[in-house]
Amino acid sequence: MRKYLLLLVIGLYVCTAKAQLIKQDNQIQKKQSDLDWYNCSFDQDGVYGAEVNKAYDFLKGKKIKKRPVVALIGTGLDVEHEDLKQAIWFNPKEKANGKDDDKNGLIDDINGWNFIGGKDGKVMEALTREGEREFLRLKEKYADYIFDGKNYYKVINDKMTVVPAPENMDEYVYFRFKVMMESPLAGSYGGVGLAYILRDYALKFDKQMKAQFPGKELTVKEFQICYDPKAPRDSLSEVAFTLMAYGFSIMKTDKWQVIYDLYATGGQVQRAMSSYEQNLKNLGNDGREEIVGDNYLDIKDNKYGNNVLLTSDAALGTMQAGVVGAKRGNGFGGDGIMDQAEIMALRVSAGNGEPYLKDMALAIRYAVEHKADVIVLPEQNTLYPEQQKKWMIEALEYAESKGVLVVVPVWELSRDLSKQTFFPNRWMTGGKELTNLMVVASSDKNGNPAMNSNYGAKELDLFAPGINVLSTYTGDTYQMGTGVGLASASVAGVAALIKAYYPSLTGSQIRDILLESVTSRKGVEVEKGIEVDGKQTQDLFLFDDLCLSGGILNAYQAIVAADKLGK
């Protein structure tokens, strides 16, 4: 009963999977190529699925040699779903008795673990963004510096005062040019500093004009003398002059007194501070300290969380699990790609915000230590602080050393991955390339890439079915969904299928097989969303300019290749 009550309050995980309810009665009237079309093929069904059904035709008469374990690192999961029960992983060394039977420091981790839960059973429902976390970590060191191109200032006793340059310039540069770009909260706090700058320059400009035009009513005409293009460059003066010049238009006046009252009286400072405090309340605290209680900056503080997996964000994880392992041929929902897989749920994501890198690194290690064959991560991200990036590198290298394939989807931001770096990626170690990491994006049944997915001829490996596919949903229901999380599940399902019949193949070998066995779309011109100067537009691309393989996931061709390699 608890599942059905929870279903009433569950929201869609819109960042990754958009879903539309499909009633069971209506499914009977639709072809598989309209529903779980990722199982289908172009030659038999007229859609660019992953040719899973053809792969099973090839595998007839062959026996499964192992039940592969797929770790879904992301949101929660409905482990009691009617169509997933046979595919849920159970920790063989743990019992549901309130004790830590396997002595790993985690009590009752039966089907996986919730890394953003508390000992009292509470769970985090939203997360902050990495940019906000880094801003707050470094705020006291660097947020109050103001630089005019020559001197550094801070507001001391309500006055802008020249101060020495920051001691750690590398960290300051990282804060100013990376963190500030990633944090809306930092931008809001920067508004306070800007208000002080405008206040001080309003006073300077006022004094300058009154000295040159004593007794005259000052207007926008007199204001022009406050900027001298021949004078030594002062970036703060230029910013202040430009904004105040706009102020005349915004306030629809030519009177300097109106602009002076706006900026020089301190009201702008108070408004900026109030805005920051409101944003801090909304963006700066996700309750981790109160709920989880760990130090997210200490990787050795690793005995935290709980075993609550049916959470308000469990919809996405449940849909991913259905693509991987829903029971085949039972008439419920869609057919999973590898229904003999064992699906492990490791929750690090919530409905909003970005996962903590510590949680992801520990989840990867948990999955590897518990014999996972395939790991699915949340989307890539642009900000990986150096120390935390090291944790992720070490975890991914550990997975590589144990033969585990790791699948990570791109963000859907229409960005060129050759121009902007997202993590994790194969080159993030700075040395040896990670051979077990596969980066994927979504494609539709017509063989087209998702319009808004990130892309890169070297950085993105392949496209996989992830648009308008039928899968399991919380509360024993089924829905049509769209998103990169479903594309990564398609890849994980095919990788698990290969591992089930050819268990000696490593994650690195499976990645190579998947890359070399795609349904080729090389030379095909497709329309694709791109970002130009921060604005979304569209352009035409050759498919092979969008990803390394130049094609779409193909289970049949991958199984044939694996069979040859295994002989």
Structure description:
With about 575 residues, the protein is of the alpha/beta class. The chain has 18 helices and 17 strands. A seven-stranded parallel beta sheet has the order 3-7-2-8-9-10-11, with helices on both faces. The longest helix has 29 residues, at about 185-210. About 50% of the residues are buried. Mean pLDDT is about 95; it is low at about 1-15 and about 20-30.
Question: Can you give me a brief rundown of this structure?
Answer:
The protein is α/β, with parallel strands linked by helices and 567 residues long. It has helices at 2-7, 24-27, 42-45, 52-59, 130-142, 169-182, 184-212, 220-223, 235-250, 256-263, 267-283, 288-291, 314-325, 357-369, 386-401, 484-501, 507-516, 555-566, and strands at 18-21, 69-74, 112-114, 146-147, 152-156, 159-163, 342-347, 374-376, 405-409, 437-443, 462-465, 469-473, 477-482, 519-520, 525-532, 535-542, 551-552.
The biggest beta sheet is recorded as:
7 strands, parallel
Secondary structure tally: strands: 17
- List the strand order in the largest sheet: 3-7-2-8-9-10-11
Question: Helix content range of the residues, please?
Answer: 25-40%
Number of helices: 18
Low-confidence stretches: 1-17, 20-28
Which geometry do the CA atoms define?
Answer: elongated
The structural class is: alpha/beta
Span of the ends, CA to CA: 50 Å
Strand content: 5-15%
